[in-house]
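thread from #wetlab-drylab

HS: before we spend reagent money on co-crystallization trials with zinc ion, can we at least see a predicted complex? here's what I'd submit
DV: go for it
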Amino acid sequence: MPELPEVEEAATRLRAVALRELITMVQVRHPALARSFPPQAQAAVVGETIVAVTRRGKSQRVGLADGGTLEVHFRLAGDWALGRRGDPEPPHERLRIDLAGGARVSLVDPRALSVVRYFPSGTLPPSGLGPEPLEAEFTVPALQEALRTRRVAVKLALLDQRVVAGVGNIYAAEALWEARIHPGAVAGRLTRARVARLHDAIRTVLQTAPAGRYHAPDGVREGWRVYGRAGAPCGRCGAAIGRMVQGGRSSYYCPTCQR
Ligand SMILES: [Zn+2]
């Protein structure tokens, strides 16, 4: 599942081929995508030039010359397949965008859960997202303030995109291991010292995420400290990594060194 580092990497790849390019053709290849990106929205972007590709949280935003925006969310399994017009159709292609220079941008998604929405100039709603964790706005006091009133487990608080944008199940688990905080600790009761450790850990795990891991075949995505490693030894203390369910999703943690 793509989180901040993977979405950032995807936006970077898209930017490299799409910036300053004119959209000559848009084709939705799956009915699920047509629900979020209907024909009139598709028609509105044809003939527009792409002037920006940015990321906010786990969304990508494609800025158009007329002020409109295409917002793309990969959900569980989306990705870009970037090629040239005339290339063979990539597997699981859901959306195809042709650019005047000959490039072809395909949104591929075996689960067909990705969402693309078009916002005409001036209609993009506020994101409702918390601070970007790698930007200066994400400070220890800001994180402490966001957690202060939350009586839920800190793991669940981290998944709340209003607390910090772009962190999901994998990086939340990794950050809590790095900070030596139990995922079930009550968010609002963390001491300032622990919040500071968590703040630094979130940045560390996001910044050290191996590039391109999202594109590796399943089973080759190594390098996690706890995520998906139930029963394996903790790299810090050797205890067996545990697993528990929080909010319907698996949390992985070291029962010995995360308190
Ligand atoms: Zn441990």
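DV: The pocket of zinc ion is lined by residues 234, 236-237, 239, 254, 256-257 (CB under 6 Å).
HS: ok that's useful, forwarding to the group
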